[in-house]
Amino acid sequence: MTIARVTELSATSPKSFDDAVAKGVERASNTLRNVVSAWVKEQSVKVENGKIVHYQVNLMVTFVLDD
Predict the structure, then answer these.
(1) Which stretches within 1-67 are classed as H helix?
(2) Which are the contacts of 65, defined by CB distance < 8 A and separation ≥ 6?
(3) Residues 35, 62: contact at Cβ < 8 Å?
(4) What is the structure's pLDDT at 1?
(5) Contact of 53 with 13, CB cutoff 8 Å
(6) Which CATH architecture has domain 4-64?
(7) H or E element, residue 34
(8) First to last CA, the chain
(9) Predicted model pTM
(10) What are the residue boundaries of the structural domains of the chain, listed by start?
């Protein structure tokens, strides 16, 4: 039987939402073993002086627990 766990994390990027997702998944994979999926729960941007400064995503990352 396979057991998985889901954890939430936030990631940011000055480039795009896609880049923030990629950075978040890469960072999670460096810390967690057996990452199998991620879904974007929320997206937001930080704005300063009328311009987007960075993109932020909240990710739900799923990883399979070791036996």
Answers:
(1) 17-31
(2) 3, 4, 5, 34
(3) yes
(4) 85
(5) no
(6) 2-Layer Sandwich (3.30)
(7) none
(8) 9
(9) 0.89
(10) 4-64
